[in-house]
């Protein structure tokens, strides 16, 4: 089953309404002043690791609270990772990426929790967001390099193996994550410092920030995801026509509760079309047509079956099976049947 997920936003100024915690928390005005100097996270940060984990190319699904339930703040902004045989088709390459960054970053509360940061008693942009100071020197990126066509073919054949978003990029470098003092006094001091510096962030100051974690050797510490435009089964077959030297028979199943039954139904429909094509011009016994069809099926160039899934309380499956036969073999079978008919 595929999911439509939001694409990660590019870095942008984060100046939105924020609600202060009740009681002695910071005022809304102070929270707004700090928020205007923050930028949205343009990657999913995680504790540094030596190798990309989860693996580049993994299919992911954004966390979403079950219907009728409040989101778990410790999971907002995180992804569930799906292992898939279709990921093996993707290839990646490492590229140099010299970049330094020091910023006050707004990230989802689940991402902050995974970094060991507290979930603040503040509500940015309707809630479920946290502030962190991020400083890093980027050395290289692991980026998607190819294999999308093969992966797409795999996904239309095996839709349960794929979502429509993957991890397409990993960042490697050294850096630090800083905790932000979100108390009333802390944010008030931070607001004054940022205003005086014209928004420039200096994480080396002890006022408003404290180091939460740091790594001085290059490690993988953040990844990006990429939305995929996966074809439906019908679209894929329509966009991949066959050459003139092939005869094609495409069977379509009914909508069925079982994926296996849908595949079988589509295959039977394609074979039925082949039998009808052989016998439609001549009055020949069914047994003879079936024998000729069986002989042709033994020389089928390709038997491609793909599946579409219709969501609902009980998912429904519709499969399409394509049988490709060399035109010369098909014409030879027709000629033989014509001779037998005469």
Describe the structure.
The chain has 342 residues and is α+β, with helices and mostly antiparallel strands. The protein has 8 helices and 14 strands. It has helices at 28-35, 109-114, 148-157, 184-196, 233-238, 259-279, 286-297, 327-341, and strands spanning 13-14, 18-19, 38-40, 44-49, 59-62, 79-82, 91-108, 123-124, 129-146, 165-180, 209-227, 246-252, 302-310, 316-326. The strands form 4 sheets. Strands 1-3-7-9-10-11-4 form a 7-stranded mixed beta sheet. Helix 6 (259-279) packs across helix 7 (286-297). The model is unreliable at 1-23 (pLDDT under 50).
Short characterization:
With 342 residues, this protein is an alpha+beta fold.
Number of domains as seen in the coordinates: 2
Pick out the low-confidence regions.
1-23
Structural class designation = alpha+beta
Kindly, what is the distance between the CA atoms of the first and last residues, rounded to a whole number of angstroms? 53 Å
Order of helices and strands: EEHEEEEEHEEHEHEHEHHEEH
Question: How many strand segments?
Answer: 14
Helix segment tally: 8
Strand content bin: 35-45%
Shape, please?
A: elongated
Q: Mean pLDDT, nearest integer?
A: 82
Q: Largest beta sheet, briefly?
A: 7 strands, mixed
What is the CA-atom radius of gyration, in angstroms? 29 Å
Summarize the amount of helix as a percent range.
Answer: 25-40%
The neighbouring-strand order within the major sheet is: 1-3-7-9-10-11-4
């Amino acid at each position: 089953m595929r999911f439509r997920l939001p694409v990660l936003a590019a870095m942008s100024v984060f100046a939105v309404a924020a609600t202060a915690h009740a009681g002695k928390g910071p005022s809304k005005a102070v929270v707004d002043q700090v928020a205007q100097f923050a930028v949205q996270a343009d990657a999913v940060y995680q504790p540094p690791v030596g190798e990309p984990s989860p693996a580049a190319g993994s299919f992911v699904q954004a966390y979403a609270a079950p219907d009728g339930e409040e989101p778990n703040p410790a999971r907002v902004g995180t992804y569930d990772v799906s292992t898939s045989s279709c990921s093996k088709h993707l290839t990646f390459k490492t590229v140099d990426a010299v970049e330094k960054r020091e910023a006050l970053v707004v990230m989802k509360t689940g991402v902050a929790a995974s970094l060991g940061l507290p979930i603040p008693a503040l509500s940015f942009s309707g809630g479920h967001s946290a502030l962190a100071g991020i400083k890093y020197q980027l050395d290289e990126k692991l980026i998607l390099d190819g294999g999308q066509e093969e992966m797409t073919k795999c996904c239309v054949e095996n839709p349960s193996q794929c979502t429509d978003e993957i991890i397409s990029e990993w960042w490697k470098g050294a850096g630090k994550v800083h905790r932000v003092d979100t108390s009333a006094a802390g944010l008030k001091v931070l607001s004054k410092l940022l205003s005086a510096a014209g928004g420039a962030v200096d994480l080396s100051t002890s006022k408003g920030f404290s180091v939460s974690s740091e790594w001085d050797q290059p490690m993988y510490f953040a990844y990006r995801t990429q939305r995929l435009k996966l074809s439906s089964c019908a679209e894929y077959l329509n966009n991949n026509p066959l050459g003139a030297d092939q005869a094609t028979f495409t069977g379509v199943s009914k909508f069925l509760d079982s994926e296996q039954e849908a595949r079988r139904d589509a295959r039977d429909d394609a074979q039925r079309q082949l039998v009808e094509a052989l016998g439609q011009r001549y009055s020949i016994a069914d047994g003879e047509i079936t024998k000729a069809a069986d002989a042709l099926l033994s020389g089928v160039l390709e038997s491609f079956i793909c599946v579409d899934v219709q969501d609902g309380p009980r998912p429904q499956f519709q499969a399409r099976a394509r049988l490709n036969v060399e035109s010369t073999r098909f014409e030879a079978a027709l000629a033989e049947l014509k001779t037998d008919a005469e």
